[in-house]
Amino acid sequence: MVRAPGGRVVATTDLLVEGRHFRRDWSPPYDIGRKAAAQNLADVVAMGARPTALLLGFGAPPDTEIGWVDALCDGLRDECAQVGASVAGGDIVRAETVVLGVTALGALDGPAITRSGARPGDVVAVTGRLGYAAAGVELLSAGRREPADLIDAHRRPRPPYAAALGARDLGATAMLDVSDGLVQDLGHIAEAAGVRIEIDGAAVPLPPVPDGLRLALTGGDDHAFAATFPNRMPLPAEWRTIGRVVEGPAEVVVDGRTHGAGGWDHFRPPQR
Amino acid sequence: MVRAPGGRVVATTDLLVEGRHFRRDWSPPYDIGRKAAAQNLADVVAMGARPTALLLGFGAPPDTEIGWVDALCDGLRDECAQVGASVAGGDIVRAETVVLGVTALGALDGPAITRSGARPGDVVAVTGRLGYAAAGVELLSAGRREPADLIDAHRRPRPPYAAALGARDLGATAMLDVSDGLVQDLGHIAEAAGVRIEIDGAAVPLPPVPDGLRLALTGGDDHAFAATFPNRMPLPAEWRTIGRVVEGPAEVVVDGRTHGAGGWDHFRPPQR
After folding, report:
1. Which residues contact A259 (CB under 8 A, 6 or more apart)?
2. Per-domain residue ranges for chain B?
3. Quick one: which of B28, B43, B112, B151 has the most CB atoms within 10 Å?
4. Per the annotation, does B13 bind a ligand?
5. Which positions in this protein are listed as binding Mg(2+) 1 (chains A, B) (predicted)?
């Protein structure tokens, strides 16, 4: 959060490296653009802010096709349009592989929704898909190109922006977008708020694969939103209640057992 | 420029790639941090804004020494402190080489100073060093490590922030920081404003090397500031008047001759 004249601005930045965060042989450039924008816009929305602008630092080898770059930029622009934001500028440099430095800015009309606001007694709810993108990556890694809905989930996440933008009016006490895995990300709320989070495995929405619960609990990149709300009235249908906030050590417990975090490790080997 | 509640925010982003924008064998990490921050903070100041925050996307190989990263971050922080800004957050990823995605934010207390405001009759002035960093790069490329002031100029630019922050009160009609070379950067003002810019070579401040004028006109990376001002009163000493804005085709002329731009080409071969 950054002070601005008369208000506050939220800003978030991600660095995306070819071979690690995307593969040109797995995703068309338009989808890489959509995804690069989505993950930053979701971060802004998770803070309770309206995304306003996106900046792109673009690094690429000199032989990169202009058409490839155009399609990437189209993807960035179209994802921004989902939330009324625009691509405002950027930088272009030569690099050995494609590198994207994406920054999203947002405007706060009220207090930010942070990770530390969860309180014992709150319910935990999610909106959006869990485990779909991770299932898609496992399929692609095995050389498969279907089912299409799982492959597409990896290529182009669909963060439920509207539901998350409505969380403030529902009294959300904490919120984040699920980028590294549900358990690991809820762990950030548990730590920041000093609370214990209990999840009912049977309430977690699953992707349509045999190993659905594992992927739903540990798979990142779908950019669903997880939030905590005061337990005072039923949530609208787009939010699914999956657990509760209680007093206790800062940890996440699924069906009574502390669950290994096992989400995204930034220094594990690249996608190859 | 990005609308924010009750005001406007300026944001600028740069991608810096090891081997191209910096070399770990040429610069200590602290200086790389100082320089990475300086080039973005200078961009913000050139728009007439107060820098408020900096975000870092940091990519590095897994065997990068923690001490190296700490020193880089110290450099970012200390450069931010020069202008009252702070490092507000960022992202960390694995990459084959060190990559820095730096975003700086600033607050506008009045209208932005853009490139298009220059008007015939204005004077052109600069504050800060020109050609020093380029002289330093030529020395380093030749295997030399002195004179120290030129080597240091490459490693750690010293943008004259205070002078540039005062440009608004002097009535500056256009401003930018000299990052790609004086002639090339003034060309951006000439194009944006639809004016001709005439430079007096004898008035340009030179670095202390035999080929000083060439380096002062074409060398980037010192992050001096160039601005245009109404010709109504003498400028304070930190601004040196070097030319004038006239009607005519959008170009930059030095001593009556159109000067090849010859500044930084983003797709020329890397520093090796």
Report:
1. A183, A199, A217, A252, A253
2. 2-108, 123-258
3. B43
4. yes
5. 13-14, 91
